[in-house]
Amino acid sequence: MEPPGTHDARAGGELSAQRLRDGTPERAGLDPGELARLVTEVRALTRGEHPWAPGAVVVAGRGPVVAVREAAGLAVRYRAYDPRTGTGVELPPDRRVPMTVDTPFDVASLTKLCTTVAAVQQIERGNLAVDARVGAYLPEFRAVARRGVTVRQLLTHTSGLRPEAPLYDCADAAARQALLRAEVPVGAPGVYRYSDLNMLLLQQILERVSGHGLAALVRDGITRPLGMTATGFGPRPGAAATEDQRRPWAKADRGMLRGEVHDENAWALGGVAGHAGLFSTARDLAVLCRTLLAGGAYGPARILGPEFVALLLTPPGLGFAFDQPWFMGELSGHGAAGHTGFTGTSLVLDPATDTFLILLANTVHPVRRPPDSRPRAAAGTRLARAVRGG
Questions:
Q1: Is residue 2 over pLDDT 60?
Q2: Beta bridge partners of 361
Q3: CA distances in angstroms from 316 to 117, 250, 352, listed in the order given
Q4: Residue by residue, what is the 3-state secondary structure of the chain?
């Protein structure tokens, strides 16, 4: 194992454990023309009567240098959604809230990445075995135990569990727990099927083996040592608004959401869930990307040893998706890792080029729509071309 901070980054020979700092594209070894086009295209996504998103924040860089840090559009644009017209009811201009680079977002399924890092920390400490059966930790989950589902299968979405369960319709915590315990895998273990339930079961395992709640595990093991002071489970009153959440398009009637978790199951679980619930900023997520690209260290802090970062980031890895051109664009193809979130969030880190890209947007404001990741892929392509020099 190499000592912390001895790995040379590819931009300017900086030490990998160095903290992020703002700099020019040239200082990061990136083409300024491509990054200028990236910023222009992100700004355009927030304009017009029916934008891709009312607002967005993009942060991108290489090594320890942040070469792009840009906010566009509005964090809050609408007061409601009108299903009769299929359009948002806009706030008066003086009540709209501009987007800033420090605006927190409900990052939705990017929460899964922090849950995954917390799990790998428990693996590193010997409290959890990646190939152990879930039944060894949660024997009361009898159907999952009978199928021999493993911790690795939870982390790689190969457990066979269905995508979600209607916890939001349960009367109380006991009913929610009973529903989870009764879950029977609908597919054969070993076959990929993306499921929020994987991370909900993993959360229960982590809390059992550690004796701490997930919020404390994320805070004490990840965000506090890394100085990610804007990251945590909600509520976050100043966050970008998400959805006017009402039936029939949503699964609960909650009205316009801002600073309250969007995901209905995470809401039913009190806002702290293994699959969703975190709020963060693009800058904080860049710190997490930089930490993983640097082998688990950031400044004086180390949250994972390099071999355990490799467990995360060597395909097929754990938790992350790899080389997915539908949201990574031309960054994909040589081991890029990333994830997306339903609210409009995404991040990609590319160990091969030591680059990272965070694009946060409130695409579900004022209402959820069919997902469109073409802008994410276009941003990834711009960064990839910036690495290559245009």
A1: no
A2: 56
A3: 15, 33, 16
A4: CCCCCCCECCCCCCECCCCCEECCCCCCCCCHHHHHHHHHHHHHHCCCCCCCCCEEEEEEEECCEEEEEEEEEEEECEEEEECCCCEEEECCHHHCEECCCCCCEECHHHHHHHHHHHHHHHHHCCCCCCCCEHHHHCCCCHHHHHCCCEHHHHHCCCCCCCCCCCHHHCCCHHHHHHHHHCCCCCCCCCCCCCCHHHHHHHHHHHHHHHCCCHHHHHHHHHHHHHCCCCCEECCCCCCCEEEEECCCCCCCCCEEEECCCCCHHHHHCCCCCCCCCEEECHHHHHHHHHHHHCCCEECCEECCCHHHHHHHHCCCCCCCEECCHHHHHHHCCCCCEEEEECCCEEEEEECCCCEEEEEEECCCCCCCCCCCCHHHHHHHHHHHHHHHCC
pLDDT in tens, 42-95: 999 999 999 999 999 999 999 999 999 999 999 999 999 999 999 999 999 999
Are 157 and 321 in contact by the 8 Å Cβ rule? The answer is no
From 103, 116, 154, select the one nearest 343 (Cα to Cα). Answer: 103
Q: Does residue 277 carry a pLDDT above 90?
A: yes
Q: How far apart are CA 43 and CA 76, in angstroms?
A: 16
What radius of gyration, in Å, describes the C-alpha atoms of the chain? 20
Q: Give which of 274, 311, 279, 275 is closest to 296, Cα–Cα.
A: 311
| CA separation for the pair 169, 31 (Å, rounded) | 51
Nearest to 165 by CA among 146, 178, 151: 178
How many CB atoms are located within 10 Å of the residue 197 CB? 24
What is the sign of the dihedral through the CA atoms of 322, 325, 328 and 332?
positive
In the predicted structure, residue 244 carries a pLDDT above the cut 70: yes
5-16 core/surface letters (b: 16 or more CB in 10 A; e: else): bebebbbeebeb
Residue 233 phi, psi dihedral angles, 5° rounding? -75, 150
The tokens for 84 are 């009769």
